[in-house]
Each structure stands twice: as structure tokens, then as C-alpha cells.
Amino acid sequence: MAALATLSRLLLALHxxxxxxxxxALPPAALARLQQDLPFDAAVWASGAATPQGPRFxxxxxxxxxxxxxxxxxxxxxxxTLFARCVAQPGRAVCAAASEAxxxxxxxxxxYGLAQAVSIVVLAPTAGLVSGLSLYRRQADRPFDADDxxxxxxxxxxxxxxxxxxxxxxxxxxxxxxxxxxxGAAACDAQGLVRQADPRFLAQLQAEWPGWHGPWLPxxxxxxxxxxxxxxxxxxxxxxxARCQALGPLRLLHLRPRRPADxxxxxxxxxxxxxxxxxxxxxxxxxxxxxxATVRNQLADLxxxxxxxxxxxxxxxLLGDDGGPSATAPTPPPP
Length: 335
What we know:
- The protein is an alpha+beta fold.
- It has helices at about 1-20, 25-35, 70-75, 80-90, 105-110, 145-175, 200-210, 220-225, 265-275, 280-290, 290-305, 310-320, and strands at about 40-50, 55-65, 95, 115-125, 130-135, 185-190, 195, 230-235, 240-245, 250-255.
């Protein structure tokens, strides 16, 4: 019962940190909190994409280790039998002593005082993502034990998900928008390499492209990622709608099922967006350079196409349950 109570307190603290902290502040805070219940002296936490050429890490957090350690590790990584054992059994924590490592790697580990290690790797095969955490102790006579292994196996999936959630939240904040409830979200780069993806995004992507496996986006979504600025809601595939916003080197990508309003001509979508905002026929006509009678006829056409009878129903058809518009009203001309 004591172990369960410890795990419960730790998980609550980690999820609270994920809600309260900025993305960059979460890893050091999470590792410091983990250290209270699972003592260690140093750590490496990495996440990336699993490519045929090997992992391409885009997230890296070191605790009490210099970056030079990773540079020195690079030419030795083919000797890392601990990592290979972890990849062979994802989700399981594996312990090893530096004295057990092949000689080239053993010298490297001892140079940085990494006498004992416990590591875990988590794979998301469909998305093509990989992440892992290695904890180290400097004293050779302090190996990690079965309780340490059990705690790390229970905690690390939560750490991984919390870190992904924080990264996506940071992009939502940079985009000055709230996460869309009905749309899945993913972070990728301009080349279409997925960095994070939530379950809703992956489910919609697999429904649209059943044979897809990451980490590279399908060509229609990769084309959106390559575009600068904002690509508003556009149809992709057979039954999906995507939106992509460039945020520096990254892209925030949303994917959701297509709604009837997504298939409207652009002008009708503009009229619909202004009507949902509460504008009168006359105001809409002035904004779009149309006659009020034309606007009235276009709204009647909208209601007929969507099978609705009111502006409230129009709002529901246009916005869905994610609060994200399927149409963008034009910017009014200057007075």
C-alpha cells in the first residue's frame, strides 16, 4: 500500500506540474520530483522520431550532465547494449552497470561517473515516435533495484504524455488559440516530420489513410506543413479537414472529420461566417459588396444546403463542437 500511495502522490504532482508549468520548465521540475521517490544522480530524457537512419531526437533534457557527454557518446552509440535491450522490450525498464558495458562505452560511462543505470524506452509505432529516460547513479555499489524498476515503468508513460501535452499547449498558446475539442492536434516541422501528436489526431489520420505509419506525414498534410503562414480549414483526403499554422520552425496541425459546411463555396462560407457573428443582411452586404437581397438569397441557399432553419443551427453547422470556424470572414476594408 505504501508503494501505491507513493505512486499516487508522484503522479498527481507530475500532472499538476504539466498543467501549471511552461513546456521548457516541465522536464527539470518533473525529474526533480521523480528524484524524491526514485533517487538518482543524473538523467537523460530524450524524444524524437524513429527513422530508418535511426532516431532523430528533437527533445533533449539533461540533468547534472554536460552536453559534451552526448557529443562523446555519438561515435559510441553502436555499442550501447542497454539501449538495444530497451528498444527490444519497450515500456520495460532495464538496469545495467557500467562494468557490464562493452569496453569503448564503459570508458565513456566511467568518465562521466555513470556507474549504474536504469533506462526505459516507449515507442509509438504508428506515429513513428520514440522517447526514453535514463537515470544514473555515480556509485557502483548503489544499483537500481526491482522497486526502482517498477516505479519507473509506472511513471514514465505519464511523464512522456505530460511532456507531449505541454509542447502542444505551447504551440496553441503561440497560435493564440485554444485547443479545438473535435480536432486532433499535432506538431511537426516544415518537412512534415511529426514531433508530437495527440490520440484524436492519430485516429483521424489513420481513418483517412489506413496504411499510414509515421513519422512522416502523408503527402497532402506534408504539403500544408510546407506552406508559410496559416492554411485555413481545407479538405484533405476523402472525409477530413485540416488546418495548419506556421510557428517559427514548427507547425501546429489540426485534423478533424469534414462537416457539411466545409463543402460550401467560399462566398457562401463568408456569408455564413458573418451571419454567425450576428451581422444583419445589410451589414453583410456592405462588407462583401453585395446587394442585401443577394445576401438574403444566399442565406436561404445556405439553409437549404445544410438542412437547417435558423442562425443558431447555422452556427452549429459552421463551428461544430470544436469552436473552430469552417469559414473565415473577410477583413473589412478601411473606412
